[in-house]
Amino acid sequence: MLKCVFRWLPILLLAAVGTPVSGQTPPPPTPRIAPHEMTIHGQTRVDNYYWLRERENPEVIAYLEAENAYTEAMLAGSAALRDTLLAEMKGRIKQDDSTAPYELNGWWYSVRFVEGGEYPLWCRRPGGPDGAEEVMFDGNAMAVGLDYFSLGAVEVSPDSRLAVYGVDTVGRRFYTLRVKELATGRVLDDVIPDVTGNVTWALDNRTLFYAKQDPATLRSWQIWRHELGTPVADDALVFQEDDETFECEVMRSKSDRYLMIASSQTLSDEWRVLEADNPTGAFRVFQPRRRDLEYGIEHQGDRFLVRTNLDARNFRLMECPLDRTGEADWRDVVPHRDDVLLEQFEVFTNWLVLAERYDGLTHLRVVPVAGGPDHTLAFADPTWSVGGEANPEMDTDALRYRYASLTTPSTVYAFDMRSHVQSLLKRQEVLGGFDPANYEAEYLHVTARDGTQVPVSLVQRKGTARDGSAPLLLYGYGSYGYSQDARFNSAALSLLDRGFVYAIAHVRGGQEMGRQWYEDGKLLKKMNTFTDFIDCGRALVDRRYTSPDRLFAMGGSAGGLLMGVIVNQAPELWRGVIAQVPFVDVVTTMLDASIPLTTGEYDEWGNPNDRTYYDAMLAYSPYDQVEARAYPAMLVTTGLHDSQVQYWEPAKWVAKLRALKTDANPLLLRTNMDAGHGGRSGRFRSLEETALGFAFMMGLAPGGR
């Protein structure tokens, strides 16, 4: 789950952050509304700020707007710095940039930006990369007059004539699907509103399959079939996921031979398949769901390939015949290994490409289907991020992959799997005089309090003093098994060039060190995520990379939960914390099955209706653990339309902190009134939020500038 009595904040807040403008008042007091009480397991929890859930209440909107005004006033002194940072960040971006084109059915597809444009153009060229360009969608034109715009679900029909696309203008991830005739630009009359954006074509080029979400919980739970030119009211429901802990999606196999429906939850999967040239046929179950059996499938030649945890904690790759798909007929292709996590696989006619993680890092291994020696690609950086790029064609020897590191901008290569010759297709161009030789990266290991070795990726400008005087930003996430790899971030150069060190703590809860790394950071072991991060922070202080009066932390969504816990457990360690869309009211949310994502995540956080899990999450839930104590400076961000972590969680948390904290450090809440979980849309507008956070930290750091 990528899940407010106010009092006067003393005017003694650091002038470097921004002195309140003349006449500025703090946020208004909470209206006198009776507290909400909830009794469970013999305990009564009193929530004084429960009323902030009322999204349509004018008093709630007025409160959020007052908090925004207060934040702007408190940061008024950093306005010039924010402008400077924003100009730097924009100045590093090549405005008329484009992606490396890829081939599909004789067309070469790419996305490009134009000078000053917030949104990309989706383009294609016939015959080759130098063919005459055809603009399929112009995001800038489509976004005119909109505060928020997201174009998703762009899927070209198998015959390349039509494209289905989805538009979200709120940020709550409700898309409206339409279909465009690409040769003429004509938009067909078909309009499918309020869907997830997950859509795929059948091979007849006239049948669409799409996913709908439950309007209450936003769980993707239905797959529908639509035939072009027919009323949406006549669409057929082909699958409904009635288990509220599962979500479903639809796709077409890379080979184009099969339509596939995947229904998944944290610990179990169930797939259905149907020949893609028979869209009105009945999907058949590939392997019935069973708790603790996870699997994913792809088609290759005369077999299905299955990545599964069947008797394999770190997953293995298996195969089965096309007509016998139950687990009894699965046979090993890549056996399980205790020290290697099989993350993903990619199929080609003659090749398999495996993404394997060991030593905390992902490696790509190319395996010939016909047998013979395999080949693992080599990378020179101490820490990196690598993964497959657009590879829609089956019958090719070229593997496109994307590589980046903390000092290497995002780069797309084509690797010839037969000759092992590699070609550079595209490297992110970083303007403004960037030279990777000016920066250095490290890959460290920190000993956590229980003896576990926790990796840390770190980057700094060469010559940065290692005497405790450098400010350092430590980032973390640690949930859902999502590994946080070391990627290049051109915006972060504005920190590094001002003497900051940037570090990523690869805490338990991800899968950096294999599947057990995830298991040891969830449910009743969730506390490991938080203590790992604190121990990494302390180790960086002990090793003189920084000091507590210069150490900052940042995380978003479940990483925002991490921020909420560390300020409760070790407030003295941090000079400042940025919590983005933070999931901080864990117990209340996980007890409310009407909130999106709740029931599907009992296997991640636990079900608090069970006393054991209730006690465990209550022990770390940031909102419940706020005390009358000193806290570090904090900037908290949220979005009014966030469907993953509802805005009221950070709003309530800030309110309770205001009422109880005993320090004079800044506590700022900023709500984007037009966006959802991902913040503002647009290529450059999103950088305004980055500049805000950077200026917040620089204003607090001794000698910040």
How many domains make up the coordinates? 4
* Overall mean pLDDT: 92
CATH architecture of the largest domain: 3-Layer(aba) Sandwich
Number of helices: 13
For CATH, the homologous superfamily of the largest domain is named as Alpha/Beta hydrolase fold, catalytic domain
Strand order of the largest sheet: 31-32-34-33-35-36-37-38
CATH fold description of the largest domain: Rossmann fold
Shape from CA axes? globular
Q: What Rg, in angstroms, do the CA atoms define?
A: 26 Å
Textual characterization of the structure:
There is one protein chain. By secondary structure, the protein is of the alpha+beta class. It has 13 helices and 38 strands. It has an eight-stranded mixed β-sheet, sandwiched between helices. Strand 19 and strand 20 (303-308) form a beta hairpin. The two termini are 36 Å apart.
